[in-house]
Design goal:
With 213 residues, the protein is α/β, with parallel strands linked by helices. It has one domain: 3-Layer(aba) Sandwich (Rossmann fold), CATH 3.40.50.150. Strands 3-2-1-4-5-7-6 form a 7-stranded mixed sheet. Helix 2 links the parallel strand 2 and strand 3.
Amino acid sequence: MPADQVRHPFFARIYPALSRSEEKAGVTEQRRLLLAGLSGSVIEVGAGNGLNFPHYPAEVVAVLAVEPEPRLRTLATRSAARAPVPVEVTAGAGERLPAGDGAFDAAVAGFVLCSVADQGTVLRELLRVLKPGGQLRFLEHVRAQTPGLLRFQRAVDATVWPLLLGGCHTSRDTAAAIEQAGFRIEQIERFDLPESSVPVPAKPHIRGVAVKV
């Protein structure tokens, strides 16, 4: 398999239906908040089926959307044709982004850092391709802050959950990984999605802005 491709055939088939359910549960609004105020050139890593594309503001002049899963990349290409800003969808892996140093004003990581093989490598790649002062916008489900739910997350991460859900690991401390990669987090909001008392392993989320310093 080429280095710029990752195949998750089961996940790629169920994700369109799964994502529609998530959008109705509140993810659409989170995507809008994630991208609000962006401008200039943007790289999006792990674009999936392109659900971020409709929410890019007009001030964004170009988006390079990187997606390694072929089936999802096909869906993203269709979505790009309807986007309000120019979006180029390309094959590529977060661990080796198809872009030069300092090429972008901003980077977007939405629901992807849970599933990459090496968070640190991907985040350092995002740091590399950003201009000084460039923003990383992130929206991810993350490690729980309560002991009971964290134990549950670690338990499901040790089962077939990652295999069935595209490599997803629910117990990652993504905010810490962002800082360890060299970013400075300037804004962060923690919230549960869905908002319920049910102990869903992927319920704790963060959304925020980090800067290349």
